[in-house]
Design a protein that fits this description.
By secondary structure, the protein is mainly alpha-helical. The chain has a domain of about 50 residues. Helix content is about 40%, strand content about 0%.
C-alpha cells in the first residue's frame, strides 16, 4: 500500500478518516497482563480508596493520617521569625556564599553549608578558620596618641570638701 499524505487538499474528510483508521489498525496495542500473581497488595485496597479516605475525614473532621504522626501539633511563637519568602531567600544566599568557597573548603564540610556554619560559629575554631584561609590574622590595635593642642594641667591646690565653698 502506498503511503498517502493526510493533509492533501484533494481528499475528503471521510477519506482522511479512513486513512487514519487504517494506520491505527497497524499500530501495536498495549498488552494486558493476565497471568500469574499480581505484585499489588490487595490488603491496602480499603486504605487507598479515595472515596473512603474522604468519608473518614468528613466523619472525624480531620485526616486520620495526620493523627498518626509522632508529634501531630507543635505550637511555637514564631512572631519574630521572618516570613517564608525571606527565610527561603536567606537560605539561597547562604547556599550561594557557601558554593563560592574553594572546593577544598567545601569538601572539608562534605558540601554541607550547615556543617560549615556550625564550625564557623564556634569561637574555638578561629585557628581552623585561619588555616582554611577564611579568617585574617588579628593585627594588634595601635595605641592612639592624644592630638589635643593643650595638655590638661593638674591643679596642686586642694579641692574644697563638699559643702565648703569660697568664703565671702
Amino acid at each position: 500500500m502506498k503511503k498517502e499524505k493526510i493533509a492533501s487538499s484533494k481528499m475528503s474528510v471521510d477519506e482522511r478518516k479512513a486513512i487514519i483508521a487504517e494506520r491505527l489498525k497497524k499500530r501495536p496495542h498495549a498488552k494486558v497482563w493476565l497471568g500469574g500473581t499480581s505484585r499489588t497488595k490487595q490488603s491496602f485496597k480499603e486504605e487507598c480508596d479515595i472515596n473512603k479516605i474522604v468519608d473518614r475525614a468528613a466523619k472525624a473532621g480531620v485526616l486520620q493520617d495526620v493523627l498518626r504522626l509522632p508529634d501531630p501539633a507543635n505550637y511555637l511563637d514564631v512572631s519574630s521569625a521572618p516570613d517564608f519568602l525571606s527565610a527561603q531567600n536567606l537560605i539561597i544566599k547562604a547556599r550561594s556564599q557557601f558554593d563560592a568557597l574553594p572546593a577544598k573548603v567545601r569538601n572539608r564540610f562534605q558540601n554541607d553549608p550547615s556543617a560549615f556554619l556550625a564550625f564557623a560559629s564556634d569561637p574555638k575554631n578561629k585557628e581552623g578558620m585561619r588555616e582554611l584561609g577564611l579568617l585574617k590574622e588579628e593585627q594588634p590595635k595601635p595605641v592612639k596618641e592624644s592630638t589635643d593642642p593643650k595638655p590638661v594641667k593638674e591643679s596642686t591646690d586642694p579641692k574644697p570638701a563638699a559643702g565648703e565653698g569660697p568664703k565671702a
